[in-house]
Amino acid sequence: MLMTRSIISMLCNNSYLKPNIWNSLGTVVPQLQAVMVPQQLVTCGIADLAGALALCDWSQLQQRRRNLARRHCSPREASSYFSKMSDIGGLEINHFLDLLNRTSSGNSCDIKPLILQASANMFCQYMCSVRFDYTDKDFQKIVEYFDEIFWEINQGYSFDFLPWLIPFYNNHIQKIVHWSTIIRKFIIDRIVNNREININLEEPDKDFTDALLKSLKEDQNVPRNTILFMLEDFIGGHSAVGNLVMLALAYIAKNPLIGQQIKQEVDTVSKNGVKSISLYDMNVMPYTMASISEVLRYSSSPIVPHVAMKDTVISGYGVTKGTIVFINNFILNTNEQNWTYPDQFEPERFLERKYTNQINVPVKWNDDRKSLQGSDSVVHFDEEKHSKCSKIMLRKKGIINGYQLKKTIPHFIPFSVGKRTCIGQNLVRGFGFLLLANIIQNYNVSSTDFSKIILEKSSVALPTKCFELLLRPRHKFD
């Protein structure tokens, strides 16, 4: 989950090779050209690199900041933070669905702004104890700017790697600076100022904002900008949620059978609409969670960079200490050695049978595919059978009772690994689940023009103006 203030250009210096690295046999190891080294990271006037939680150098300050953020922004089930997250998400879903009912009216419409605003309110309430009205023009503007920036940081422009091109992109960079400035002003004026004046160091933390402001007063070594960077970074996480949900709805519109599976799961858990889906239902809705994982795999997203802590060798090439290293997440998510039929959108690949050690099960498809022995996908539902089966038959097949999410898939790391793993991943998954499940509970999702739903496989970000979807209110038991 890359945020606003993490828009830092990774500039290169490819004019020389680093000193030789010797292997254990005393032989010089071939080296990759040093295209990324820490001292070449610059901010292009957008932000202070040391303030960006995802991209700053590792230090004791960075460790303290991550510990503080993890306590508030990585809610675990059975914790008070998780309960708070569930309550906030449930209340915001009610506001969101009420407005969506009045907006969609059974017509094709652009629902991305509403989804983003709902996500933003969930994050703002959870982290800042403040909620904004959907008609608030300033709120609408900063949600749009966050989304614009989220799109930009997922593009991988040439000047990110070729610094001499920066002068040719000056207008583009200034546009991002403008967006960031408006966001910063909104957060200071509408969130921070009043809270900073009334902060009480003796009272328990009310939220993440309280914790940040208290750390500012208690530790003189913490710059105020650092606190603002962190707050912007985490509030900006709502853009990842909004784009994730939009992608999931697009894949459902293009693959109705997947939507049908989620509906069956939603209807079973909600007792056919008697109750709304809550955050505590995630564990009993494996197919829905598998669909979210498949969106993250199929679309992929860039992972924040790491830095080599010592000289090492990767695949025969020397990597010197201090070199910036990116994990090629796209290859991890699309490599046929890791995934069976990686070009197909199949949530089932993230499921496994409950109460059995048999993980890889040969299954014949109705399109004459070969056996899937050794596949990452455990259960593949037969399209012909599913188009005819009833809710009762589906439940007997065990979408809820017979299958569960795979606990670990080593090559699936959508939120990175190690010390720079995404702290807010539980918020992204949780709020994303709430929005997706409740939309599917209340609407049939389709499109009047599938040619306009253009989905890139290398980005979890969508353009601000992407595509319209057709949402028809569901009748019970449809």
- Report the structural category: mainly alpha
Share of helix, binned: 40-55%
* Oligomeric grouping of the chains: single chain
Output the CATH class name of the largest domain: Mainly Alpha
Give the name of the CATH superfamily of the largest domain. Answer: Cytochrome P450
Number of helix segments? Answer: 14
Largest sheet: 3 strands, antiparallel
Question: N- to C-terminal separation?
Answer: 36 Å
| Total of domains | 2
Classify the beta-strand content into a percent band: 5-15%
Q: Briefly note the CATH topology name of the largest domain.
A: Cytochrome p450
The H/E string reads EEHHEHHHHHHHHEEEEHEHHEHEE
Shape, principal axes of CA atoms: globular
Main sheet: strand order: 3-11-10
| Number of DSSP E strands | 11
> Poorly predicted ranges (pLDDT <50, ≥5 residues)?
1-19, 32-49, 356-399
Radius of gyration from CA coordinates: 23 Å
Examine the secondary-structure arrangement and name the CATH architecture of the largest domain.
Answer: Orthogonal Bundle
The chain-level mean pLDDT equals: 79
Which short descriptors sum up this protein?
478 residues, mainly alpha, Cytochrome p450, 2 domains, three-stranded antiparallel β-sheet, two-stranded antiparallel sheet, 14 helices, 11 strands, 43% helix, globular, disordered N terminus
